[in-house]
Structures are given as C-alpha cells and as structure tokens.
User: What shape does this take?
Amino acid sequence: MTQDELKKLVGEAALEYVVDDSIVGVGTGSTVNYFIDALATMKHKIKGAVSSSEASTERLKKHGIEVFELNEVGKLPVYVDGADESNHLLELIKGGGGALTREKIIAAAADQFICIADESKLVRRLGEFPLPVEVIPMARSYVARQIVKLGGDPVYRTGFVTDNGNVILDVHGLVINEPIKLERILNNIVGVVTNGLFAERAADVLLLGKEGKVETITR
Ligand SMILES: O=C[C@H](O)[C@H](O)[C@H](O)COP(=O)(O)O
Assistant: This one.
C-alpha cells in the first residue's frame, strides 16, 4: 500500500470513534482530509464539526457538514487529527501545516483524542521532524534567540502566516528526551503562542496504518 492509501485507511477507521448525534472535533492535514471525506458519508448521523483550520472548515463545508465555533459547543466527545511524529507514549509533534494552536485548543477541549497516521510517523524519540513554534510576529527574533540558548536551531517559515495571523519557527536539532518538560519551557518564552509538542495532552488512541492494516495503539 502507498502512504496515501494508508492515510485513507486510517481516516476511514476513525469513523468508528465518532459518536452519533455529537459534534466532532476535526484536525488538519492530508490524513485528516481522508477522515473528512469519510465523515461526509455519515454526516446525517452527526450534528456537525468544530474545525482546527480554515482549510478543514472549507472541506467540511463543501461536504455539507455544519461547522460550529468551539465557543458555541458544550461537549466534544472526540477529536480526530493527524501528526508529524508520534512516540510510543502517543506524545506528538504537530504543526507541519501550521495549524498547531487551534489543534491544541480543540484537543484540550475534547474527551478523547484519536490520532491517525501512517507508519512513517511512529518514532522512538521525537525530534527528527523540526518542531513548529507559533510566535507573535514582533517577538520572532527574541524567541529565536531564546530557542538557540536551549540548543535548538530555529528556522523562520518564510511566506507563511498562521490562521491566527502569527509566524512559525521550525526548530531543528532539539534532543527531545522529556517532551512534557520541553513543551512547558517553550510555552514559557514570552511571545510564543504555543509549540507543536502535544505531550501534556497526548493522544489517547493512535490508529496507525501499517502493512495494509490499521494497528490500534492506546496509552
Ligand atoms: O498543522 C498541521 C497538523 O498538525 C497536521 O496534523 C500534521 O502536520 C500532519 O499532517 P499530515 O496528515 O498531512 O501528515
């Protein structure tokens, strides 16, 4: 199976976690796009979705799925999203597509976080994928200097603005032995909106597309 076929497989497998008559939390990215397309086949069974990006909102609406503001929504039983990397504790790096902040907010608000990914995303130690950090534009240089002090090599994602009007620093070269600790340290730098480590709120279930099948990994 190709990587895209594996993404489709896990996108479809995530439907099993969708709760009837509920509002579904929807992430962002190429894997989630398959989930959105699959969700459309059961749209009459759900109330709608909350979305983590303008891109996902557009795709959901094209399928005729109603998109709600998170503030209007009380209970959010399930959030489905992809990842750039996951370790075996289901701690993640996310934000390759720049949607990390809204993703982290919805993940925090949801009862259950289902991560969908092909096997290339499962790693022993996080950090080969450059860690995205969303930064208030005027703080970019200051934050970059603080990150260098932590041993990282921040690269400004040129020509990219997040849905929140901020910029992204992609941090290379970090040794991430303690993801929760690093997540907190980075979030403590003034000017950082959030970083792409999802360790304090890791996934609850990882649906991993591997060798033509879906492997279910729980914490
Ligand atoms: O900002 C983007 C998100 O965190 C995505 O979930 C992540 O980049 C994975 O995307 P994809 O499924 O396209 O590999």
Notes: The mean pLDDT is 97. The pocket of ribose-5-phosphate is lined by residues 27-31, 81-84, 94-100, 103 (CB under 6 Å).
